[in-house]
């Protein structure tokens, strides 16, 4: 049978016996700090293994109960599977019991047991009163139908029954998913003599093995897992749900702190703008203003920032609402869709609410119900919806970035990709992915743009590729380039040098000016090499200015004419005829004067013609002589 891993938490008021109960269940004292022992209260979360038999490995988190240590309490319960709500029999439900209950509810923890400690101090009649008081306090919460156990940690009363109940409860819960990318929010950092830097935390998802190369976020420091321990026992692997200590190589203790996150892949990123669904507490001391300062507790991280509303200017004291809003943080955090959080007011200190992250990569939105509708859609979207929305928004994206953007595990994304590729709905460009429908949409836009350009400039070979790639910024240059290349491969588009055109396009004279342009061609052809300046030929034909340069470049690109110099255009036929005549009537080498005699050209045309012979690789000049290096007929 495959072993399952769970973390359970103790929550409740200070001095209600959480640490004593943990020791009674595990035989481990979780008060490890000197000041904790001196003050007899828990300051930091303590951890201990709970033995519940074969096939199950369980860690207990003993979280602080004192109000001043509420942040450690939040860090401790983040990522737990089951909560034991501790109430002392001689005091009943107290203020921190209620606040812990609120925080657990806001963190989305819905599995728990109620444990009444110090039960030997009261008789059966008082037990009944305590039970009624507790049931009244937990009404409307997930503890409403929870089992209630009376125990005494000193004389061991009720502990075996409690352990049995814990095991039964855990057996009914799904095991943590170890298939995803490894993520461990760090809650303790320390050094061990001779070993170096060690971190502790609960593995949220995935798995880690000794020797793995990891990354610390948000600093992006590269580290290596040199050694792993689970409750002081060396292990080769740590899995989702386990409490793990990792000896890290490549980093100093001073470079790490609680709130950092250890990850194994590039699928996680940092963010300072988060879209959230916030459930507020029933009553607030004061309203929360638009862009009011808040403190976010997310996993083991604590970050200050501002809250931004899109449908109100303040959150009233009445509370008890579910609000779609955004957090803009002072420092980056590591999170993904579905992560739970707590939001508190720094001053005066109080819990505002909690909820879940609906988009870790929030943007800048307008105030109004249109934004609320968009956030609602994000909140309700299925995994496939999120994948499709991300592909539509990003146009082209790598698998690793797709995982980051959608906050889905790799297996879900792989299944989606396989199905979409099999149906032909997904295209690949190396490591990048794109929807076929978006490709078709852009290809149609490109064809429309090219046809409009071809109609306006029929003499050109098409549209300049560099211009075309910048024309659709909403799709991005990379995706546009990919679409153009695929259009060429599919025979929809044609490439001609630096120009792109539709495959059915052939440059030519526009119908309206065809006769006048042909007049230019006929005139230049008739003049041979000793042509008049091109501007006079164009002017005499009555061509509009915008077509003069267009026609000239078309005649050159099409191979009909050659630029003799910056003012004269000669036909290829005239050039070839003169070059052949000169070649036939000269020896291997000849002079300028010989050429003048043979061709009968004036120096005005002869000199640029001879230079053109050199430039076209037919002749090579040395002093006053030229040598044939290629036959004009070849």
TrEMBL record:
PANTHER family: ELONGATION FACTOR TU, MITOCHONDRIAL, ELONGATION FACTOR TU-RELATED
Keywords: Cytoplasm, Elongation factor, GTP-binding, Nucleotide-binding, Protein biosynthesis
InterPro entries the UniProt entry points to: Beta-barrel_SelB, EF-Tu_GTPase, EFTu-like_2, P-loop_NTPase, SelB_WHD4, Small_GTP-bd, T_Tr_GTP-bd_dom, Transl_B-barrel_sf
PROSITE patterns associated with the record: G_TR_2
Entry-linked Gene3D superfamilies: 1.10.10.2770, P-loop containing nucleotide triphosphate hydrolases, Translation factors, Winged helix-like DNA-binding domain superfamily/Winged helix DNA-binding domain
CDD domains listed in its UniProt record: SelB (cd04171), SelB_II (cd03696), selB_III (cd15491)
Primary gene name: selB
Record-level GO cellular component terms: cytoplasm
Function: Translation factor necessary for the incorporation of selenocysteine into proteins. It probably replaces EF-Tu for the insertion of selenocysteine directed by the UGA codon. SelB binds GTP and GDP.
GO annotation, biological process: selenocysteine incorporation
Residue span, Tr-type G domain: 3-175
Protein name in the entry: Selenocysteine-specific elongation factor
Keyword Oxidoreductase included in the entry's annotation: no
GO molecular function terms listed in the Swiss-Prot or TrEMBL record: GTP binding; GTPase activity; RNA binding; translation elongation factor activity
UniProt-annotated location(s): Cytoplasm
Originating organism: Salisediminibacterium beveridgei
Organism classification: Bacteria, Bacillati, Bacillota, Bacilli, Bacillales
């Amino acid at each position: 049978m495959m072993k399952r891993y769970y973390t359970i938490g103790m929550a409740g008021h200070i001095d209600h016996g959480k640490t004593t109960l943990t020791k009674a269940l595990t035989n481990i004292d979780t008060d490890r700090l000197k000041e904790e022992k001196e003050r007899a209260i828990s300051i930091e979360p303590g951890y201990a293994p709970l033995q519940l038999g074969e096939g199950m490995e369980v860690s207990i988190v003993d979280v602080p109960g004192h109000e001043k240590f509420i942040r450690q309490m939040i860090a401790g319960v983040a990522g737990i599977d089951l909560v034991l709500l501790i109430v002392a029999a001689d005091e009943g439900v107290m203020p921190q019991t209620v606040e812990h209950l609120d925080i657990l509810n806001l963190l989305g923890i819905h599995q728990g047991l109620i444990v009444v400690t110090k039960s030997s101090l009261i008789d059966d009649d008082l037990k009944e009163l305590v039970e009624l008081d507790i049931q009244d306090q937990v009404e409307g919460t997930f503890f409403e139908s929870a089992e209630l156990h009376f125990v005494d940690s000193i004389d061991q009363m009720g502990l075996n029954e409690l352990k049995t109940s814990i095991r039964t409860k855990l057996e009914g819960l799904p095991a943590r998913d170890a298939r995803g990318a490894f993520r461990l929010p760090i809650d303790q950092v320390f050094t061990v003599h001779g070993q170096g830097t060690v971190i502790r935390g609960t593995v949220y998802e995935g798995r880690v093995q000794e020797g793995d190369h990891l990354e610390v976020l948000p600093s992006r420091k590269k580290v290596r897992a040199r050694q792993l321990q689970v409750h002081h026992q060396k292990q080769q692997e740590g899995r989702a749900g386990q409490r793990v200590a990792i000896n890290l190589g490549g980093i100093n203790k001073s470079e790490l702190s609680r709130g950092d996150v250890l990850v194994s892949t590039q699928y996680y990123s940092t963010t300072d703008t988060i879209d959230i669904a916030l459930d507020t507490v029933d009553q607030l001391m004061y309203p929360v203003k638009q862009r009011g300062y808040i403190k976010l507790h997310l996993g083991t991280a604590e970050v200050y920032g501002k809250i931004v509303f899109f449908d109100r200017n303040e959150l009233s004291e009445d509370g008890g609402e579910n609000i779609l809003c955004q957090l803009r943080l002072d420092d980056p955090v590591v999170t993904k869709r579905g992560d739970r959080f707590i939001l508190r007011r720094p001053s005066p200190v109080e819990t505002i609410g909690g909820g879940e992250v609906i988009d870790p990569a929030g943007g800048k939105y307008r105030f109004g119900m249109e934004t609320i509708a968009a956030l609602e859609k994000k909140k309700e979207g299925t995994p496939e919806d999120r994948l499709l929305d991300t592909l539509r928004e990003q146009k082209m994206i790598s698998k690793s970035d797709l995982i980051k953007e959608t906050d889905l595990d790799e297996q879900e994304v792989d299944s989606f990709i396989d199905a979409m590729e099999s149906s032909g709905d997904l295209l690949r460009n190396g490591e990048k992915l794109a929807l076929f429908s978006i490709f078709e949409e852009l290809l149609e836009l490109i064809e429309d743009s090219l046809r409009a350009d071809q109609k306006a400039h029929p003499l050109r070979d098409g549209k300049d590729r560099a211009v075309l790639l910048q024309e659709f910024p909403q799709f991005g240059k990379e995706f546009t380039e990919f679409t153009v290349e695929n259009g060429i491969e599919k025979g929809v588009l044609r490439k001609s040098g630096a120009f792109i055109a539709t495959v059915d396009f052939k440059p030519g004279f526009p119908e309206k000016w065809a006769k006048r342009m042909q007049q230019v061609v006929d005139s230049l052809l008739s003049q041979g090499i000793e042509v008049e300046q091109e501007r006079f030929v164009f002017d005499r034909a009555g061509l509009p200015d915008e077509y003069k340069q267009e026609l000239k470049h078309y005649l050159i690109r099409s191979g009909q004419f050659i630029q003799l110099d910056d003012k004269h255009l000669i036909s290829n036929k005239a050039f070839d005829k003169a070059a052949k005549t000169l070649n036939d009537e000269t020896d291997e080498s000849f002079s300028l004067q010989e050429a003048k005699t043979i061709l009968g050209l004036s120096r005005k045309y002869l000199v640029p013609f001879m230079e053109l012979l050199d430039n076209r690789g037919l002749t090579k000049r040395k002093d006053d002589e030229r040598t044939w290096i290629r036959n004009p007929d070849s």
